Amino acid sequence: MSSTTQIDEVTSTSGDQGDRRWYSPEEFLREARRQGAAVSRGVIYEGARTGRLPHIRIGKRILIPSDALDRMLADAAA
To answer: Quick one: CA dihedral 70, 6, 48, 30, positive or negative?
Structure first.
């Protein structure tokens, strides 16, 4: 099974996750900055490493759910 197929399976899950979007760390960083968050690449990787940032791993690839970005932006606004 190729990694593309695995990612498609992850992004097309149903149930309580709905139509969840998954970001690579670089996409997550770009989207966070686009929405005005002051976040660095190191903070994202450290959060994934320590478990503070929800994520999944497929091999060496890290995928972060879009709701993690929503929560991060909400916390920053509070």
So the answer is: negative
